Amino acid sequence: MEKKILILLVFITLISCKTTDIGFAESDLKSISLYNFDNKPITIEEITKQWNERIQESEEINAQVTKLEITNLTDLKTNESELVLLGNTNRNSVKTATKLTKFKNGLKLNEVSVTCKNCNTELNIKLNSGNWSCLSDDKLDSCTKIETMRGI
User: Fold this and answer.
1) Which residues form the domain of 108?
2) Per-residue exposure over 39-60, b if at least 16 CB sit within 10 Å of its own CB, e if not
3) pLDDT tens, 11-21?
């Protein structure tokens, strides 16, 4: 009987130690307070508008952010998890993102954002030693990374 209890306790301990990815759907974003890199509140609509302007005008990509989500990305080198705001465009080959940090009663957007374009991998944005990288399954495609400072 003692062995069964011990096994049960070990099993419960292992389950409670398991880490889970925290992901937020687009509908959850409405309930989270977001702040831009200047510590000012910002709405999802404002972020989407600014990201679309950046993508279309500065980066000259003919696409629009159609979906935002908060997700965890695991750094390929350090194996640490980072919370990021990920924007998916109306073209699957274009993604844009920025890191998030806890701030006041919500989350703050980092001043560096990244866009990966012409990549054929579903989630082509990755972190490697804290730096952004764009990955593709096909070595022959023209997967390109564009980093932008001080702008979401």
Assistant:
1) 20-149
2) eeebeeeebbebbbebbeeebe
3) 454 444 433 34
